Amino acid sequence: MATIMWVEDQSHWVDRFRPVLEAAELDDEPTRLQVFRLAEAACQFVRTANESQRPDLALLDANMKGDTGAGFSVSRALQRKWPDVPILYLSEYSGTDVEQEALESTWAQDFIAKHQRNIESVLCWRIRATLRQARLGAAGQTDSDDLLKSGDLTIDTASWTIYWRGTKLMNPADSRRPLAPTPRKILRYLVESSPRPVSTNRMAELLDADPDRFTWGGYRQHVRILRRAFDQAMPGEGRFTALCKTDQGIVAFGDEMAYCWKPVRSDT
Amino acid sequence: MSDEGDKRQRRGDPVAFPWFALLLGLAAIAFVLIATDPRLASFYALPDFLQGREAHYGVVAVLVLLAGLDVRRVRRRHETQRTELQQRQAQIDDLWARNKQLQLKAHTYSEHADKLKLFISDKLLEYIEYDEKFLHFKGIAAEVRHNGVISFDKVQTALQRQLTATDPASGSDTATGTAETDPQAALDALHYLWDLLDLSTAENLTLHIGNLMCECEEQYCQRLLDSDQARTLPDEPAYPPQRAAWRALAMVREEPLPALDPDTPYSLDDGRIHARLERCGELLGKENHLVLLLENLLRNAQFYAAKRGYSSQFAPIALTLSEEDGDVCLRVYNRGPHVREEDLPNLFQLGYSTRRKREHHGRGLGLYFVNEIVKGYEGRITVHNIDHPRYRYTLRMSLLNGKELIESVETVNENGRTRCRSAEGDTVRSREWTNPSPVTHIVIESDDGTGSVVLDEFSARGTQDFHDPAHPERPHWRLRYRPKRNAHRLEFMPLDITGVEFEVRLPTAQKRVDNAGAVIETDTIDGDIDPP
C-alpha cells in the first residue's frame, strides 16, 4: 500500500483529488493519503514521525496561504528526515520561478500543473511512474516479471525505462529529454541476447525495421547514443565508453557488424 | 617670457632717482658760484683753465647733456611703464574674461547637472515605477493562477459533465458549433483562454514550452514503445498541425469555416484569405500554442494587408502548411508594405511595434509571443520581404481556326510597380491581343522554373479570369479572356505580389525522436572500440 503525504491548503483540490487518489491503485494496492492543510503542521509531522510513518511519496503545493515558500519548507524538512522520499509538486505555478526553484533547489522529482487537461489521469500516471522509479532505484528491490537485470543495469520492460546504477538513462544531447525509443529497444535486445552478439540484420528483424534502411552505420550511431547516455549517468567524463574499451558494456563483436552486451563488473 | 623677466614684471622696475644729475648739477652751481666770485675763486685756488668762458660753457653743456639724458631715460622708463601697465591691464582683462567664462561654464554645468539630476531621478522613478509595476503585475499573475485556476477547474468540470451527460452522437462539431450552444466549443474556448493566460503569466515562455515538449516527448516515446497500447497515456502528447492551423483560421474569420477532413488537404480562398493546409506529421506539445502563434501571425497579416495603397487582384493573405525535411513549414504572407531593414532585428522584441501608438493595436506582444513559442519548439522563424522578380513568359495560343500564335512577354519592376515590357520597349500595365477566332487553349511557359501551364477551359461567352495556377497563394499573373464576335480579346496582366512572408519551421514529433542524440560525433574512443 502506497502512503502519500499530501500538503494542500485549498479545499477545492482536496475534495477533487482525494477520491481519485484513494481509488487509484498506484502500486497495485489501495492508496493511503495523509492530508495536511498547513505547511507548519506537515513540517511538525515530519520532525516527530517515526520510521513506520514514513510516506512513500510527498505531494506538495508550492504556494499556501499566500506564502510561495510554504511548500519548500516542507520539502526541506523531508530532505533532512527522509532524503529518499520522492517529492512531487502539484501546483498552479508551472512556468514561473516557483517551478524553477522547486526543481533546482528543493530536489523535486516532478512539477505537475493543476490546470491541465485530464489532470486526474496525469496525476495518477506520474505518481505511479515516480513510485515505480523509486522502487527500482531502491536497494534490495524485489524481482519482478517486468524487470530485466544485468549487473547494475535494470530495464523496466513495462515502461521501457532504463536504470544504470539507479540513475535513469536520458537523452545524451539534452538530459531533460527522454532517451529515444530505438536505442532503448536495441539495449533491451542486446541484454536479452547476451552473451550472444546481435548482428545488424538480426537487430533489424528484432526492431521490425526495413533491413535495407537499418544499416550498420545506423546501428553504430544508436550504440554511440547509448554509450553517451551511460556516460551521462556516471560521474566523470566518458567512463562507460572507456569501459567499453576493456571489453565490458556494449562492445563491438569482431568484424561481423554486430554488438554484444557484456555485464560490467561491479568494482569498475 | 623668461623667469627673470617675469619676476621683474611681477615686481615692477624701480623708478631710479637722478642722483648723478642732481649732484653734478649742484657741483656745477657751486663751480659757477666760485667761478663768478673772485674772492671765492682765489680762496679755493681755482685753476686758470677753469676760469675761462670755455670751461663755463663746457660745464653748462655737460649739465644740458645730463639733463637730456635724464629726460630720455625718464621718457623711456615712462614708455616701459605704460607698456607694463597695458600688459597688466590686458592680463587683468584676460583674467576677468576667463573668470567670466569659468562662471558661465560653471553655470552651464550646474544647469546640466541639475538637468541630469532631474533626468536621473525621473528615470529612477520610472524604473522604480516600472519595477513596482512589474512586481504588481507579477502579483496579479500569481493571483490569477492561484484563484483563477479553481474557477477554471470548476467551469471545466461542469462542461465535461455536461458533455458526458449528453449523447456524444448528438454533439455538434466544434467547426460549426458555438460556445453558446455547444459545450465542446465552450470547453475548447475555455482551454484556449487558460493556455493563453498560462503562457502570458509564465516567467519564461520558451523554457515553459521547452519543459512541456520534454514531458510530451516522454509520453510520445512511450506510445512508440508500447505498440500494443497496453498502458494508456494520460493525455495526448502530440497533435496534428493541420487542425491547429484550421482553428487559427476560424478565429480570424467572421464566417464559419467549412469543416476539416483530417485525411485530406484543406483548401480555402474566399478572396480575403487563401489557405492550403496539407496533412503533416504530428507536433509535440499543446495545440493551443500553435493556434496562438498562427492567430497572431494572421492578425498581423490582416492589419498590414489592409493598408492603403496595397490593393490586390487576389486574396491578400495566404496561409500554407506543408511538411519539408521533417519540419512542419508554415508560411503566412500578406500583400502589405515591406518590413524596413532597421525594423527587422527588433521585430520580435517584447514591446516593439511598427504600428502607430494612437492605434488600438500594436503593443509589441503578438510577434514576441510567436517568437517565444517557436523557440520553445526549437524551431525557426524568418521574415522575407517579397519582391516581384523579372520573368519572361512565352504564350502559345491555339485558335479554333487552326492557327497558333506565339507571344513573348517580359515583366519588369518599374518604380515598385509590376509592368510588361512591350515589343517597342515601352512599359505597359498589360498586354492585349485580339484574334478573329476563339481561343481553344493556351500554353504559358515561364523562365521561373515552374514549367509550363496549360489553360484550355475557355467558354464562348462572358469575361473569364485565369490566375497563375503555379503560384496559387500569390499568382504572378492574370489572364483575362473576353470572347466577342470576330474580336476575341486576351489580356495578360502581371500582378503585383510585393509583400511580407513569415516562415515558421517546427520539427515534427517524429523528427525530434529520430534525431534525438543524432548529433553524436565520431570520436577516437568509438573509433578504437568499433570496427571502421
Rounded to an integer, what's the Rg of chain A over CA atoms?
Answer: 21 Å
Q: Write down how many β-strands of chain A occur, each being a DSSP E stretch of 2 or more residues.
A: 12
Beta-sheet strand percentage of chain A?
15-25%
Total helices of chain A: the number is 9
Name the poorly predicted regions of chain A. Answer: none
**Which structural class do you get from the secondary structure elements of chain A?**
alpha/beta
What is the strand arrangement across the widest sheet of chain A?
A: 2-1-3-4-5
Integer average pLDDT of chain B: 84
The proportion of residues forming helix of chain B, as a percent range, comes to 40-55%
Instruction: Give the C-alpha Rg of chain B.
Output: 50 Å
The main sheet of chain B comes to: 6 strands, mixed
Count of β-strands of chain B: 18
Mean pLDDT of chain A: 87
Shape of chain B: elongated
Short description, anyone?
The complex is a heterodimer of chains A (268) and B (532). Chain A has helices spanning 11-23, 39-48, 70-81, 97-105, 119-137, 181-193, 200-206, 216-233, 239-244, and strands at residues 2-7, 31-36, 57-60, 87-91, 110-113, 147-150, 153-156, 161-164, 167-168, 198-199, 249-253, 258-262. Chain A has 268 residues and is α/β, with parallel strands linked by helices.
Structure overview:
- The complex is a heterodimer of chains A (268) and B (532).
- Chain A has helices spanning 11-23, 39-48, 70-81, 97-105, 119-137, 181-193, 200-206, 216-233, 239-244; strands at 2-7, 31-36, 57-60, 87-91, 110-113, 147-150, 153-156, 161-164, 167-168, 198-199, 249-253, 258-262.
- Helices cover 40% and strands 19% of the residues of chain A.
- In chain A, helix 6 packs across helix 8 (216-233).
- The two termini of chain A are 37 Å apart.
- Chain A has nine helices and twelve strands.
- In chain A, the strands form three sheets. A five-stranded parallel β-sheet of chain A has the order 2-1-3-4-5, sandwiched between helices. Chain A has a four-stranded antiparallel β-sheet with strand order 6-7-8-9, sandwiched between helices.
- Chain A has 268 residues and is α/β, with parallel strands linked by helices.
- With 532 residues, chain B is of the alpha+beta class.
- Chain B is built from eleven helices and 18 strands.
- Chain B has helices at 3-11, 19-36, 38-43, 53-165, 183-200, 205-225, 241-252, 287-305, 366-376, 509-514, 524-529; strands spanning 238-239, 266-269, 273-277, 283-284, 317-324, 327-334, 380-386, 391-399, 404-414, 417-421, 427-428, 431-435, 439-446, 452-455, 464-467, 477-482, 488-494, 499-507.
- Chain B is elongated and about 165 Å long.
- Classes of the chains: A alpha/beta (268), B alpha+beta (532).
